[in-house]
Amino acid sequence: MTRPVPVPRTVAALYVVLTDEPIESDLPAPPVPPPSLLLARGSSPKAVRFAESLTYATAVSAEGDLSDALTLQRQTQAAARALAAEHVGVVVDAAVPRLLGPQGPHPDVLRAGEWFVLERPEETTTATHGLARFGLPELYVADTGDAALPMVDAVLTGIAQRVIEEWPDNDPVGPATVTLRDVARGYGDASAGGDDPTLTRSIDVTLAYDADADRLAVTLHDDPATALFAP
Predict the structure, then answer these.
(1) Are residues 180 and 207 in the same domain?
(2) 49 φ/ψ angles, rounded to the nearest 5 degrees
(3) Does residue 141 share a domain with residue 59?
């Protein structure tokens, strides 16, 4: 029998503000991710070069109940952005980690893709990185063909959208059906709320909790190329 996902009592949010002048803070200076890691997680070379020129690092952090995880992240990120704006600095999302751009998360709508990145720990393996901020294990899918990787990215984004929305009220372990609408919502696509019939296309998946690796292994029961993205 597949084990359920452990439910933590609290979650934490941590953002790092980089500036060229010191900022008074009661917290110790946080570690700053190396430039190579920021680049690997999608930050632009120009933004990373600017971040390297900033001498001081200040933590903006908070801890709260699991049920308020999304609000906690939004509020803490907003506080970090305000501090960076005041001191002409930049913000590092420590959960990924990556440099944040000028646009903040949508204030009213959950767009899962704003909160994690996708990475390739192996050539045909895709995993999320960032869902831990919601008290969730990361998603992981293995043994996909190279040509399918962009479509697997889309499926994982749709799964992440559903899992974040339903957690912690519903345990994510077990079979699920993910629609193209879930994918669109995960990317913040403006068409996600429309009545386009293609948004009802779906793919069946199963999520199993791997306790040793603390991750959710995803099995795709259909080919996303035909189930979701066929002409």
Answers:
(1) yes
(2) -60, -40
(3) no
Q: For the beta carbon of residue 182, count every other beta carbon within 10 angstroms.
A: 24
**Residues comprising the chain, all counted:** 231
Domain residue limits at 179: 112-229
Sequence-distant (6+) residues with CB within 8 A of 140 are 125, 126, 127, 128, 210, 213, 215, 216, 217, 218
What are the distances in angstroms from CA 195 to CA 115, 180, 181, 184, 190?
26, 12, 10, 13, 12
Rounded to an integer, what distance in angstroms lies between the CA atom of residue 32 and that of residue 14? 12
| pLDDT value at residue 136 | 98
Phi-psi region of 106 (alpha: psi -120 to 50; beta: other; left: phi over 0): beta
Other Cβ atoms less than 10 A from the Cβ of 51: the count is 21
Q: Residues of the chain whose pLDDT is less than 70?
A: 1, 146-147
Contact present, 138 and 62 (Cβ < 8 Å): no
Alpha helices in 41-148 (DSSP H): 45-52, 69-86
pTM: predicted TM-score of the whole model, two decimal places: 0.93
